[in-house]
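During the second year of the project, the team shifted from modelling isolated chains to modelling whole assemblies. The rationale, set out in the original proposal, was that interfaces cannot be judged from single-chain predictions alone. As a representative example for this report, we include one of the complexes processed in the last quarter. Its constituent sequences, exactly as entered into the pipeline, are reproduced here:
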Amino acid sequence: MKKLLFPILLLATLFTSCQKIILGEDEVNTPKNNFDIFWEDFDRHYGLFTVRGWDWDSIRMEYEGQVTPETTDEELFTIFSEMIDYLDDRHTFVYWPGRKFFASGDAGRDQVREELSLDLIVRNYVDVRDSSSVEEYLYGDFRGRDIGYFHLSGIDLEDTGLTDQILRDIGHHQAIIIDLRNNTGGADQIGVEIAGRFIQEEKLLYTVQERNGPKHDDFAEKKEYFSRRIGTENFNKPVVVLTDQVTISAGEVMLLYLKSIATVTQIGDVTSGDFSDTGMRRFLPNGMQYRYSIMKFLLPDGTSLDGVGHVPDIYARNTVEDIAAGNDVVLERAFTFLLEEYGIR
Amino acid sequence: MKRCLFSAALLLFFGALGAQSFPVEPVYRHQLTLTIGAHHGYVRDQNFSPLNYRADGLRFGLGYGRTTKSGHLMSAELGLGLTKLRSSASKYHTTDRYLIDLSFGYLRNMGPAEGSRQVRLGGKYRSYVDVSIFEGAEAISFFALHGFELAGDAAWRTGGRHRLKLAGSLPVFGLLVRPPYTGWDKFISDNDTALLRILTRGKWTSLNDFTGLRASFGWEYRFNDRWTMEAGYGLSYYSTQRLDPVRIFNNQFTLTATRKY
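Output from the structure prediction step:
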Protein backbone atom coordinates (compact mmCIF):
# COMPACT_ATOMS: atom_id res chain seq x y z
CA MET A 1 0.00 0.00 0.00
CA LYS A 2 2.74 2.43 0.96
CA LYS A 3 4.59 1.57 -2.22
CA LEU A 4 1.55 2.51 -4.26
CA LEU A 5 0.58 5.59 -2.30
CA PHE A 6 3.88 7.35 -2.77
CA PRO A 7 3.94 7.36 -6.60
CA ILE A 8 0.30 8.36 -6.68
CA LEU A 9 0.87 11.34 -4.42
CA LEU A 10 3.99 12.21 -6.35
CA LEU A 11 2.06 12.18 -9.60
CA ALA A 12 -0.73 14.28 -8.12
CA THR A 13 1.84 16.82 -6.94
CA LEU A 14 3.50 16.90 -10.31
CA PHE A 15 0.23 17.29 -12.17
CA THR A 16 -0.86 20.20 -10.02
CA SER A 17 2.36 22.12 -10.37
CA CYS A 18 3.61 21.64 -13.90
CA GLN A 19 1.81 24.10 -16.09
CA LYS A 20 4.74 24.33 -18.47
CA ILE A 21 4.97 20.57 -18.99
CA ILE A 22 1.28 20.26 -19.68
CA LEU A 23 0.61 23.36 -21.76
CA GLY A 24 4.01 24.17 -23.16
CA GLU A 25 5.86 27.47 -22.92
CA ASP A 26 3.72 30.54 -22.43
CA GLU A 27 3.99 33.39 -24.90
CA VAL A 28 6.78 35.75 -23.96
CA ASN A 29 5.92 39.35 -23.23
CA THR A 30 8.27 41.20 -25.54
CA PRO A 31 7.34 44.03 -27.91
CA LYS A 32 8.23 41.91 -30.92
CA ASN A 33 6.19 38.91 -29.80
CA ASN A 34 3.20 41.10 -28.99
CA PHE A 35 3.52 42.68 -32.42
CA ASP A 36 3.83 39.30 -34.15
CA ILE A 37 0.81 37.84 -32.37
CA PHE A 38 -1.23 40.93 -33.14
CA TRP A 39 -0.33 41.07 -36.84
CA GLU A 40 -0.66 37.33 -37.42
CA ASP A 41 -3.98 37.08 -35.61
CA PHE A 42 -5.45 39.75 -37.86
CA ASP A 43 -3.84 38.09 -40.86
CA ARG A 44 -5.46 34.75 -40.05
CA HIS A 45 -8.87 35.92 -38.86
CA TYR A 46 -9.83 39.42 -40.03
CA GLY A 47 -12.76 39.12 -42.43
CA LEU A 48 -12.59 42.13 -44.69
CA PHE A 49 -9.16 42.19 -46.34
CA THR A 50 -10.53 41.07 -49.70
CA VAL A 51 -13.79 43.01 -49.50
CA ARG A 52 -12.04 46.28 -48.74
CA GLY A 53 -8.88 45.54 -50.68
CA TRP A 54 -6.47 46.09 -47.81
CA ASP A 55 -2.84 44.99 -48.06
CA TRP A 56 -2.04 43.74 -44.57
CA ASP A 57 1.49 42.71 -45.56
CA SER A 58 2.27 46.34 -46.28
CA ILE A 59 1.27 47.19 -42.72
CA ARG A 60 3.72 44.66 -41.36
CA MET A 61 6.46 46.11 -43.53
CA GLU A 62 5.63 49.62 -42.42
CA TYR A 63 5.51 49.00 -38.68
CA GLU A 64 7.65 45.94 -37.95
CA GLY A 65 10.86 47.97 -38.05
CA GLN A 66 9.48 50.37 -35.47
CA VAL A 67 9.22 47.61 -32.87
CA THR A 68 12.43 47.02 -30.94
CA PRO A 69 13.18 45.51 -27.53
CA GLU A 70 13.11 49.08 -26.18
CA THR A 71 9.64 49.85 -27.51
CA THR A 72 7.41 50.84 -24.60
CA ASP A 73 3.81 49.67 -24.17
CA GLU A 74 2.75 53.25 -24.81
CA GLU A 75 4.53 53.22 -28.16
CA LEU A 76 3.24 49.77 -28.99
CA PHE A 77 -0.32 50.86 -28.33
CA THR A 78 0.18 53.76 -30.73
CA ILE A 79 1.55 51.37 -33.36
CA PHE A 80 -1.39 48.99 -32.94
CA SER A 81 -3.80 51.92 -33.17
CA GLU A 82 -2.25 53.14 -36.40
CA MET A 83 -2.28 49.61 -37.84
CA ILE A 84 -5.99 49.15 -37.27
CA ASP A 85 -6.80 52.69 -38.26
CA TYR A 86 -5.60 51.68 -41.72
CA LEU A 87 -8.48 49.17 -41.80
CA ASP A 88 -11.02 52.00 -41.33
CA ASP A 89 -13.34 49.55 -39.63
CA ARG A 90 -15.40 50.66 -36.65
CA HIS A 91 -15.78 47.06 -35.54
CA THR A 92 -12.07 46.91 -34.85
CA PHE A 93 -10.62 48.08 -31.53
CA VAL A 94 -7.54 48.01 -29.36
CA TYR A 95 -7.89 48.07 -25.57
CA TRP A 96 -5.28 48.74 -22.98
CA PRO A 97 -7.33 47.90 -19.90
CA GLY A 98 -7.40 50.65 -17.37
CA ARG A 99 -5.38 52.92 -19.67
CA LYS A 100 -6.52 53.48 -23.24
CA PHE A 101 -8.95 52.52 -25.95
CA PHE A 102 -8.83 53.10 -29.69
CA ALA A 103 -11.54 52.44 -32.28
CA SER A 104 -10.62 52.25 -35.92
CA GLY A 105 -12.41 54.51 -38.37
CA ASP A 106 -13.94 56.72 -35.70
CA ALA A 107 -12.33 59.97 -36.80
CA GLY A 108 -14.87 62.74 -37.29
CA ARG A 109 -17.71 60.81 -35.65
CA ASP A 110 -17.76 63.06 -32.58
CA GLN A 111 -18.72 65.95 -34.83
CA VAL A 112 -21.55 63.89 -36.32
CA ARG A 113 -22.79 62.95 -32.87
CA GLU A 114 -23.24 66.63 -32.11
CA GLU A 115 -25.36 67.07 -35.23
CA LEU A 116 -28.31 65.35 -33.62
CA SER A 117 -30.17 66.52 -30.56
CA LEU A 118 -32.97 64.40 -29.19
CA ASP A 119 -33.71 67.16 -26.71
CA LEU A 120 -34.31 69.48 -29.64
CA ILE A 121 -36.60 66.98 -31.34
CA VAL A 122 -38.63 66.49 -28.17
CA ARG A 123 -38.71 70.20 -27.46
CA ASN A 124 -39.63 71.41 -30.94
CA TYR A 125 -41.20 68.55 -32.84
CA VAL A 126 -42.51 65.47 -31.04
CA ASP A 127 -45.04 64.63 -28.37
CA VAL A 128 -43.38 61.63 -26.80
CA ARG A 129 -45.55 58.62 -25.98
CA ASP A 130 -42.84 56.45 -24.49
CA SER A 131 -39.08 56.17 -24.28
CA SER A 132 -36.36 54.14 -22.61
CA SER A 133 -32.73 55.08 -22.20
CA VAL A 134 -31.91 51.46 -21.41
CA GLU A 135 -33.56 50.03 -24.51
CA GLU A 136 -32.58 53.14 -26.46
CA TYR A 137 -35.89 54.02 -28.06
CA LEU A 138 -38.27 56.96 -28.16
CA TYR A 139 -41.49 57.31 -30.09
CA GLY A 140 -44.42 59.65 -30.41
CA ASP A 141 -46.34 61.93 -32.73
CA PHE A 142 -45.13 64.98 -34.60
CA ARG A 143 -47.04 68.03 -33.43
CA GLY A 144 -49.52 69.26 -36.02
CA ARG A 145 -48.61 66.55 -38.49
CA ASP A 146 -50.05 63.20 -39.48
CA ILE A 147 -46.66 61.56 -39.02
CA GLY A 148 -45.32 59.25 -36.33
CA TYR A 149 -41.78 59.29 -34.99
CA PHE A 150 -39.70 56.31 -33.86
CA HIS A 151 -36.10 56.89 -32.80
CA LEU A 152 -33.64 54.11 -32.09
CA SER A 153 -30.21 55.06 -30.80
CA GLY A 154 -29.36 51.38 -30.46
CA ILE A 155 -30.88 48.08 -31.56
CA ASP A 156 -31.46 46.88 -28.04
CA LEU A 157 -35.17 46.27 -27.46
CA GLU A 158 -35.58 43.57 -24.84
CA ASP A 159 -38.84 42.47 -26.44
CA THR A 160 -39.36 43.30 -30.10
CA GLY A 161 -43.09 42.80 -29.50
CA LEU A 162 -42.89 46.38 -28.31
CA THR A 163 -42.80 47.32 -31.99
CA ASP A 164 -46.36 46.01 -32.31
CA GLN A 165 -47.41 48.28 -29.46
CA ILE A 166 -45.60 51.20 -31.08
CA LEU A 167 -47.46 50.59 -34.32
CA ARG A 168 -50.76 50.39 -32.46
CA ASP A 169 -49.92 53.80 -30.97
CA ILE A 170 -48.56 55.64 -34.01
CA GLY A 171 -49.49 53.39 -36.93
CA HIS A 172 -52.67 55.38 -37.60
CA HIS A 173 -50.53 58.17 -39.06
CA GLN A 174 -50.09 58.51 -42.81
CA ALA A 175 -46.34 58.07 -42.47
CA ILE A 176 -43.67 57.17 -39.95
CA ILE A 177 -40.18 58.57 -39.67
CA ILE A 178 -37.76 56.02 -38.27
CA ASP A 179 -34.74 57.87 -36.97
CA LEU A 180 -31.56 55.79 -36.98
CA ARG A 181 -29.20 58.73 -36.66
CA ASN A 182 -26.53 58.16 -34.03
CA ASN A 183 -27.58 54.52 -33.91
CA THR A 184 -24.71 52.54 -32.41
CA GLY A 185 -26.00 49.09 -33.33
CA GLY A 186 -26.83 46.12 -31.16
CA ALA A 187 -28.25 42.74 -32.07
CA ASP A 188 -28.97 42.08 -35.75
CA GLN A 189 -31.90 39.82 -34.95
CA ILE A 190 -33.65 42.58 -33.02
CA GLY A 191 -33.35 44.87 -36.03
CA VAL A 192 -34.71 42.13 -38.26
CA GLU A 193 -37.72 41.72 -36.01
CA ILE A 194 -38.41 45.45 -35.85
CA ALA A 195 -38.12 45.75 -39.62
CA GLY A 196 -40.38 42.70 -39.99
CA ARG A 197 -43.31 44.91 -38.93
CA PHE A 198 -42.81 46.94 -42.12
CA ILE A 199 -41.95 44.14 -44.56
CA GLN A 200 -44.51 43.29 -47.24
CA GLU A 201 -42.87 40.48 -49.16
CA GLU A 202 -40.22 37.81 -48.73
CA LYS A 203 -37.05 38.11 -50.75
CA LEU A 204 -33.33 37.45 -50.51
CA LEU A 205 -31.58 40.48 -49.07
CA TYR A 206 -28.00 39.47 -48.33
CA THR A 207 -25.64 36.67 -47.46
CA VAL A 208 -23.15 36.29 -44.64
CA GLN A 209 -19.90 34.34 -44.64
CA GLU A 210 -17.49 33.97 -41.75
CA ARG A 211 -13.75 33.75 -42.26
CA ASN A 212 -12.84 30.09 -41.81
CA GLY A 213 -9.21 29.68 -42.76
CA PRO A 214 -5.77 31.28 -42.83
CA LYS A 215 -6.01 32.68 -46.36
CA HIS A 216 -7.63 36.07 -46.74
CA ASP A 217 -10.27 34.59 -49.06
CA ASP A 218 -11.10 31.55 -46.89
CA PHE A 219 -14.77 31.87 -46.06
CA ALA A 220 -17.52 29.53 -44.93
CA GLU A 221 -20.52 28.85 -47.12
CA LYS A 222 -22.95 31.66 -47.66
CA LYS A 223 -25.82 31.89 -45.25
CA GLU A 224 -28.80 33.56 -46.89
CA TYR A 225 -31.03 36.06 -45.14
CA PHE A 226 -34.54 36.85 -46.38
CA SER A 227 -36.98 39.57 -45.52
CA ARG A 228 -40.17 38.36 -43.86
CA ARG A 229 -43.15 39.75 -42.04
CA ILE A 230 -42.97 39.46 -38.28
CA GLY A 231 -45.39 40.44 -35.52
CA THR A 232 -49.07 41.12 -35.22
CA GLU A 233 -48.97 44.65 -36.65
CA ASN A 234 -47.77 45.76 -40.06
CA PHE A 235 -47.26 49.25 -41.42
CA ASN A 236 -47.48 49.55 -45.22
CA LYS A 237 -47.67 53.32 -45.64
CA PRO A 238 -44.72 55.62 -46.47
CA VAL A 239 -41.70 55.40 -44.20
CA VAL A 240 -38.70 57.71 -44.09
CA VAL A 241 -35.54 56.43 -42.45
CA LEU A 242 -33.07 59.04 -41.22
CA THR A 243 -29.39 58.10 -41.10
CA ASP A 244 -26.01 59.65 -40.48
CA GLN A 245 -22.39 58.51 -40.52
CA VAL A 246 -22.70 57.11 -37.02
CA THR A 247 -25.47 54.67 -38.02
CA ILE A 248 -23.68 51.35 -37.82
CA SER A 249 -23.79 47.60 -37.61
CA ALA A 250 -27.17 46.22 -36.52
CA GLY A 251 -28.63 49.62 -37.46
CA GLU A 252 -27.30 49.14 -40.97
CA VAL A 253 -28.48 45.53 -41.10
CA MET A 254 -31.95 46.70 -40.11
CA LEU A 255 -31.69 49.21 -42.93
CA LEU A 256 -30.97 46.38 -45.38
CA TYR A 257 -34.45 45.09 -44.56
CA LEU A 258 -36.15 48.47 -44.55
CA LYS A 259 -34.64 49.56 -47.85
CA SER A 260 -36.05 46.46 -49.54
CA ILE A 261 -39.50 48.01 -49.08
CA ALA A 262 -40.77 50.16 -51.96
CA THR A 263 -42.36 52.74 -49.67
CA VAL A 264 -39.20 53.37 -47.63
CA THR A 265 -36.95 56.33 -48.38
CA GLN A 266 -33.58 56.97 -46.74
CA ILE A 267 -32.79 60.60 -45.99
CA GLY A 268 -29.65 61.89 -44.32
CA ASP A 269 -26.02 60.94 -44.70
CA VAL A 270 -24.29 57.77 -45.79
CA THR A 271 -24.08 55.18 -43.01
CA SER A 272 -20.90 53.85 -41.44
CA GLY A 273 -20.47 50.80 -43.68
CA ASP A 274 -19.63 48.30 -40.96
CA PHE A 275 -21.85 45.24 -41.13
CA SER A 276 -19.80 42.37 -39.80
CA ASP A 277 -20.19 40.98 -36.33
CA THR A 278 -17.20 41.76 -34.18
CA GLY A 279 -15.19 38.74 -33.20
CA MET A 280 -14.24 37.73 -29.71
CA ARG A 281 -11.98 39.88 -27.54
CA ARG A 282 -8.39 38.77 -28.13
CA PHE A 283 -5.52 38.86 -25.66
CA LEU A 284 -1.85 39.74 -25.79
CA PRO A 285 0.91 38.85 -23.33
CA ASN A 286 1.36 42.52 -22.39
CA GLY A 287 -2.28 42.73 -21.25
CA MET A 288 -3.59 44.63 -24.27
CA GLN A 289 -6.67 43.32 -26.00
CA TYR A 290 -8.33 43.81 -29.35
CA ARG A 291 -11.29 42.85 -31.52
CA TYR A 292 -11.93 42.77 -35.23
CA SER A 293 -14.49 42.03 -37.93
CA ILE A 294 -14.76 38.37 -38.84
CA MET A 295 -17.30 38.11 -41.64
CA LYS A 296 -18.50 39.63 -44.86
CA PHE A 297 -21.97 40.65 -45.87
CA LEU A 298 -22.73 40.52 -49.58
CA LEU A 299 -25.76 41.74 -51.46
CA PRO A 300 -27.45 39.21 -53.75
CA ASP A 301 -25.45 40.60 -56.71
CA GLY A 302 -22.19 39.82 -54.88
CA THR A 303 -21.28 43.40 -54.05
CA SER A 304 -20.61 44.60 -50.53
CA LEU A 305 -21.65 47.67 -48.61
CA ASP A 306 -18.79 47.21 -46.14
CA GLY A 307 -16.71 50.36 -46.23
CA VAL A 308 -19.37 51.99 -48.40
CA GLY A 309 -22.48 52.16 -46.25
CA HIS A 310 -26.07 52.82 -47.23
CA VAL A 311 -26.12 55.80 -49.56
CA PRO A 312 -29.21 57.91 -48.87
CA ASP A 313 -31.88 58.53 -51.47
CA ILE A 314 -31.83 62.18 -50.41
CA TYR A 315 -28.73 63.66 -48.85
CA ALA A 316 -29.17 65.95 -45.85
CA ARG A 317 -26.99 66.77 -42.89
CA ASN A 318 -27.30 69.06 -39.92
CA THR A 319 -24.60 71.37 -38.80
CA VAL A 320 -23.87 72.11 -35.19
CA GLU A 321 -25.13 75.62 -35.92
CA ASP A 322 -28.46 74.24 -37.16
CA ILE A 323 -28.88 72.38 -33.90
CA ALA A 324 -27.90 75.44 -31.89
CA ALA A 325 -30.52 77.44 -33.80
CA GLY A 326 -33.20 74.91 -32.95
CA ASN A 327 -33.50 73.40 -36.41
CA ASP A 328 -33.19 69.78 -37.43
CA VAL A 329 -32.59 70.23 -41.14
CA VAL A 330 -32.68 66.50 -41.84
CA LEU A 331 -36.05 66.17 -40.18
CA GLU A 332 -37.34 69.20 -42.06
CA ARG A 333 -36.14 67.63 -45.30
CA ALA A 334 -38.13 64.51 -44.48
CA PHE A 335 -41.27 66.60 -43.93
CA THR A 336 -40.74 68.29 -47.29
CA PHE A 337 -40.26 64.95 -49.00
CA LEU A 338 -43.40 63.44 -47.50
CA LEU A 339 -45.40 66.49 -48.53
CA GLU A 340 -44.03 66.64 -52.07
CA GLU A 341 -44.06 62.92 -52.75
CA TYR A 342 -47.18 61.79 -50.89
CA GLY A 343 -49.03 64.95 -49.92
CA ILE A 344 -48.60 64.05 -46.27
CA ARG A 345 -48.25 66.93 -43.86
CA MET B 1 2.67 14.36 -22.67
CA LYS B 2 -0.05 11.98 -23.83
CA ARG B 3 2.26 9.03 -23.16
CA CYS B 4 3.01 10.36 -19.69
CA LEU B 5 -0.66 10.73 -18.80
CA PHE B 6 -1.55 7.35 -20.15
CA SER B 7 1.21 5.71 -18.14
CA ALA B 8 0.04 7.48 -15.03
CA ALA B 9 -3.50 6.27 -15.53
CA LEU B 10 -2.32 2.73 -16.12
CA LEU B 11 -0.28 2.87 -12.96
CA LEU B 12 -3.22 4.17 -10.98
CA PHE B 13 -5.58 1.62 -12.46
CA PHE B 14 -3.75 -1.63 -12.73
CA GLY B 15 -1.54 -1.14 -9.70
CA ALA B 16 -4.59 -1.93 -7.66
CA LEU B 17 -5.17 -5.39 -8.99
CA GLY B 18 -2.70 -7.23 -6.85
CA ALA B 19 -4.17 -6.41 -3.46
CA GLN B 20 -4.88 -8.79 -0.62
CA SER B 21 -8.21 -10.28 0.48
CA PHE B 22 -10.17 -9.03 3.49
CA PRO B 23 -13.56 -9.75 5.09
CA VAL B 24 -16.74 -9.00 3.21
CA GLU B 25 -18.91 -5.93 3.90
CA PRO B 26 -22.71 -5.85 3.50
CA VAL B 27 -23.88 -5.19 -0.04
CA TYR B 28 -26.43 -2.45 -0.52
CA ARG B 29 -28.13 -1.96 -3.82
CA HIS B 30 -28.31 1.81 -4.05
CA GLN B 31 -26.05 4.68 -3.18
CA LEU B 32 -26.19 8.43 -3.34
CA THR B 33 -23.07 10.54 -3.34
CA LEU B 34 -22.43 14.19 -2.67
CA THR B 35 -19.08 15.65 -3.61
CA ILE B 36 -17.39 18.97 -2.94
CA GLY B 37 -13.88 19.83 -3.84
CA ALA B 38 -11.24 22.19 -5.05
CA HIS B 39 -10.32 22.55 -8.69
CA HIS B 40 -6.94 23.44 -10.07
CA GLY B 41 -6.27 23.18 -13.74
CA TYR B 42 -4.54 24.48 -16.81
CA VAL B 43 -5.99 25.60 -20.10
CA ARG B 44 -4.45 26.61 -23.37
CA ASP B 45 -7.14 27.25 -25.92
CA GLN B 46 -5.81 29.05 -28.94
CA ASN B 47 -9.27 29.73 -30.24
CA PHE B 48 -9.71 31.85 -27.13
CA SER B 49 -6.24 33.23 -26.50
CA PRO B 50 -2.59 32.53 -27.24
CA LEU B 51 -1.84 32.60 -23.50
CA ASN B 52 -1.59 29.84 -20.93
CA TYR B 53 -4.22 29.97 -18.20
CA ARG B 54 -4.49 28.59 -14.72
CA ALA B 55 -7.91 27.62 -13.48
CA ASP B 56 -8.93 27.62 -9.84
CA GLY B 57 -12.28 27.14 -8.27
CA LEU B 58 -14.77 24.76 -6.75
CA ARG B 59 -16.22 21.45 -7.79
CA PHE B 60 -19.55 19.96 -6.83
CA GLY B 61 -20.99 16.60 -7.65
CA LEU B 62 -24.05 14.47 -7.22
CA GLY B 63 -24.25 10.81 -8.02
CA TYR B 64 -26.47 7.82 -7.94
CA GLY B 65 -25.39 4.23 -8.27
CA ARG B 66 -27.15 0.93 -8.27
CA THR B 67 -25.23 -2.25 -7.69
CA THR B 68 -26.70 -5.55 -8.79
CA LYS B 69 -26.41 -8.76 -6.84
CA SER B 70 -23.57 -9.71 -9.13
CA GLY B 71 -21.71 -6.55 -8.29
CA HIS B 72 -22.33 -4.75 -11.58
CA LEU B 73 -22.74 -1.01 -11.24
CA MET B 74 -25.09 1.34 -13.03
CA SER B 75 -24.34 4.95 -12.31
CA ALA B 76 -25.42 8.48 -13.07
CA GLU B 77 -23.27 11.41 -12.06
CA LEU B 78 -23.42 15.14 -12.42
CA GLY B 79 -20.40 17.29 -11.72
CA LEU B 80 -20.21 21.07 -11.80
CA GLY B 81 -17.18 23.27 -11.69
CA LEU B 82 -17.10 27.01 -11.07
CA THR B 83 -13.65 28.30 -11.76
CA LYS B 84 -11.72 31.38 -12.81
CA LEU B 85 -9.11 31.50 -15.51
CA ARG B 86 -6.05 33.64 -14.94
CA SER B 87 -3.08 34.30 -17.13
CA SER B 88 0.11 36.27 -16.80
CA ALA B 89 -1.79 39.17 -18.40
CA SER B 90 -4.88 38.97 -16.20
CA LYS B 91 -4.17 42.05 -14.16
CA TYR B 92 -7.53 43.63 -14.86
CA HIS B 93 -9.76 40.78 -15.89
CA THR B 94 -10.36 37.17 -15.13
CA THR B 95 -12.45 34.77 -17.13
CA ASP B 96 -15.30 32.75 -15.72
CA ARG B 97 -15.06 29.10 -16.61
CA TYR B 98 -17.87 26.62 -16.11
CA LEU B 99 -17.53 22.87 -16.21
CA ILE B 100 -20.39 20.43 -16.59
CA ASP B 101 -19.77 16.75 -16.38
CA LEU B 102 -22.74 14.45 -16.86
CA SER B 103 -22.25 10.72 -17.16
CA PHE B 104 -24.18 7.47 -17.24
CA GLY B 105 -22.27 4.27 -16.89
CA TYR B 106 -22.47 0.54 -16.68
CA LEU B 107 -19.53 -1.31 -15.17
CA ARG B 108 -19.48 -5.06 -15.06
CA ASN B 109 -17.96 -6.80 -12.08
CA MET B 110 -15.05 -8.91 -13.23
CA GLY B 111 -14.58 -10.94 -10.04
CA PRO B 112 -16.67 -12.43 -7.26
CA ALA B 113 -19.70 -10.40 -6.20
CA GLU B 114 -18.46 -10.14 -2.66
CA GLY B 115 -14.88 -9.81 -1.65
CA SER B 116 -12.19 -7.48 -0.56
CA ARG B 117 -11.10 -6.78 -4.10
CA GLN B 118 -13.29 -5.51 -6.81
CA VAL B 119 -12.57 -4.78 -10.44
CA ARG B 120 -15.21 -3.58 -12.84
CA LEU B 121 -14.93 -2.78 -16.51
CA GLY B 122 -17.49 -1.32 -18.83
CA GLY B 123 -18.51 1.85 -20.58
CA LYS B 124 -19.89 5.27 -19.95
CA TYR B 125 -21.65 7.95 -21.85
CA ARG B 126 -20.29 11.31 -20.76
CA SER B 127 -21.03 14.91 -21.68
CA TYR B 128 -18.07 17.03 -20.71
CA VAL B 129 -18.76 20.70 -21.30
CA ASP B 130 -16.14 23.33 -20.62
CA VAL B 131 -17.18 26.95 -21.26
CA SER B 132 -15.08 30.07 -20.74
CA ILE B 133 -16.75 33.47 -20.71
CA PHE B 134 -14.84 36.71 -20.50
CA GLU B 135 -16.52 39.94 -19.38
CA GLY B 136 -20.10 39.04 -20.21
CA ALA B 137 -19.68 37.74 -23.73
CA GLU B 138 -16.75 39.83 -24.92
CA ALA B 139 -14.94 36.57 -25.47
CA ILE B 140 -16.18 33.03 -25.18
CA SER B 141 -14.81 29.64 -25.91
CA PHE B 142 -15.96 26.13 -25.32
CA PHE B 143 -14.92 22.55 -25.55
CA ALA B 144 -17.55 19.84 -25.33
CA LEU B 145 -17.26 16.15 -25.86
CA HIS B 146 -20.47 14.14 -25.74
CA GLY B 147 -19.07 10.69 -26.06
CA PHE B 148 -18.65 7.10 -25.13
CA GLU B 149 -15.84 5.94 -22.89
CA LEU B 150 -14.19 2.71 -21.98
CA ALA B 151 -14.24 2.76 -18.22
CA GLY B 152 -13.19 0.77 -15.24
CA ASP B 153 -12.76 0.99 -11.54
CA ALA B 154 -11.11 -1.01 -8.84
CA ALA B 155 -11.25 -1.07 -5.07
CA TRP B 156 -9.68 -3.04 -2.39
CA ARG B 157 -9.87 -3.06 1.33
CA THR B 158 -6.83 -1.73 3.14
CA GLY B 159 -8.15 -2.12 6.66
CA GLY B 160 -11.25 -2.81 8.68
CA ARG B 161 -12.90 0.49 7.80
CA HIS B 162 -11.08 1.82 4.81
CA ARG B 163 -10.33 0.97 1.27
CA LEU B 164 -8.53 2.34 -1.72
CA LYS B 165 -10.44 3.15 -4.90
CA LEU B 166 -9.20 3.78 -8.37
CA ALA B 167 -11.10 4.65 -11.52
CA GLY B 168 -10.28 5.56 -15.05
CA SER B 169 -11.91 6.09 -18.39
CA LEU B 170 -10.90 6.74 -21.94
CA PRO B 171 -13.25 8.49 -24.35
CA VAL B 172 -13.16 6.76 -27.71
CA PHE B 173 -16.00 8.19 -29.78
CA GLY B 174 -18.15 11.25 -29.47
CA LEU B 175 -19.58 14.51 -30.66
CA LEU B 176 -16.78 17.03 -30.43
CA VAL B 177 -17.92 20.63 -30.15
CA ARG B 178 -15.63 23.61 -30.59
CA PRO B 179 -16.14 27.26 -31.55
CA PRO B 180 -15.87 28.15 -35.21
CA TYR B 181 -12.58 29.28 -36.71
CA THR B 182 -13.10 32.90 -35.72
CA GLY B 183 -14.59 32.02 -32.35
CA TRP B 184 -17.97 33.41 -33.28
CA ASP B 185 -20.38 33.14 -36.15
CA LYS B 186 -23.93 33.86 -37.16
CA PHE B 187 -25.08 30.47 -35.88
CA ILE B 188 -24.04 31.46 -32.37
CA SER B 189 -25.48 34.96 -32.56
CA ASP B 190 -28.73 33.64 -34.06
CA ASN B 191 -28.97 31.03 -31.27
CA ASP B 192 -27.53 32.97 -28.36
CA THR B 193 -30.45 32.04 -26.13
CA ALA B 194 -30.33 28.36 -27.10
CA LEU B 195 -27.13 27.24 -25.40
CA LEU B 196 -27.88 23.55 -25.90
CA ARG B 197 -28.01 24.07 -29.66
CA ILE B 198 -24.61 25.73 -29.63
CA LEU B 199 -23.10 23.10 -27.38
CA THR B 200 -24.27 20.23 -29.55
CA ARG B 201 -23.13 21.62 -32.90
CA GLY B 202 -20.11 19.54 -33.62
CA LYS B 203 -18.63 16.61 -35.39
CA TRP B 204 -18.95 12.93 -34.54
CA THR B 205 -15.42 11.76 -34.40
CA SER B 206 -12.96 9.50 -32.67
CA LEU B 207 -9.42 9.29 -31.37
CA ASN B 208 -8.00 10.73 -34.57
CA ASP B 209 -9.50 14.10 -33.60
CA PHE B 210 -9.21 14.25 -29.83
CA THR B 211 -7.39 12.86 -26.86
CA GLY B 212 -9.07 12.35 -23.55
CA LEU B 213 -8.25 10.62 -20.34
CA ARG B 214 -9.74 10.58 -16.87
CA ALA B 215 -8.42 8.95 -13.75
CA SER B 216 -9.07 9.20 -10.06
CA PHE B 217 -7.76 7.86 -6.84
CA GLY B 218 -9.55 7.86 -3.50
CA TRP B 219 -9.26 6.68 0.02
CA GLU B 220 -12.57 5.73 1.56
CA TYR B 221 -13.41 5.56 5.21
CA ARG B 222 -16.49 3.65 6.35
CA PHE B 223 -18.28 5.18 9.35
CA ASN B 224 -20.86 2.45 9.42
CA ASP B 225 -22.60 0.12 7.01
CA ARG B 226 -24.45 2.96 5.33
CA TRP B 227 -22.22 6.01 5.45
CA THR B 228 -18.78 6.42 3.98
CA MET B 229 -16.53 9.37 3.29
CA GLU B 230 -13.92 9.46 0.57
CA ALA B 231 -11.00 11.80 0.05
CA GLY B 232 -9.97 11.75 -3.56
CA TYR B 233 -7.83 13.16 -6.28
CA GLY B 234 -8.94 13.17 -9.89
CA LEU B 235 -7.49 14.32 -13.11
CA SER B 236 -8.79 14.72 -16.60
CA TYR B 237 -7.05 15.70 -19.77
CA TYR B 238 -8.57 16.69 -23.08
CA SER B 239 -7.00 17.98 -26.21
CA THR B 240 -7.85 18.46 -29.82
CA GLN B 241 -6.35 20.18 -32.83
CA ARG B 242 -9.71 20.86 -34.39
CA LEU B 243 -9.87 24.42 -35.72
CA ASP B 244 -7.49 25.68 -33.08
CA PRO B 245 -5.50 23.59 -30.63
CA VAL B 246 -6.76 23.27 -27.10
CA ARG B 247 -5.31 21.49 -24.10
CA ILE B 248 -7.25 21.18 -20.89
CA PHE B 249 -5.90 19.61 -17.76
CA ASN B 250 -8.09 19.44 -14.68
CA ASN B 251 -7.03 18.42 -11.20
CA GLN B 252 -9.51 18.11 -8.43
CA PHE B 253 -9.24 17.28 -4.78
CA THR B 254 -12.56 16.15 -3.42
CA LEU B 255 -14.46 14.94 -0.42
CA THR B 256 -17.35 12.62 -1.17
CA ALA B 257 -20.03 11.49 1.23
CA THR B 258 -21.87 8.32 0.28
CA ARG B 259 -25.12 7.05 1.64
CA LYS B 260 -25.98 3.46 0.84
CA TYR B 261 -29.49 2.10 1.10
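Residues 2-260 of chain B form a domain with the Lipocalin fold (CATH 2.40.128.90). Chain B has one domain: 2-260.
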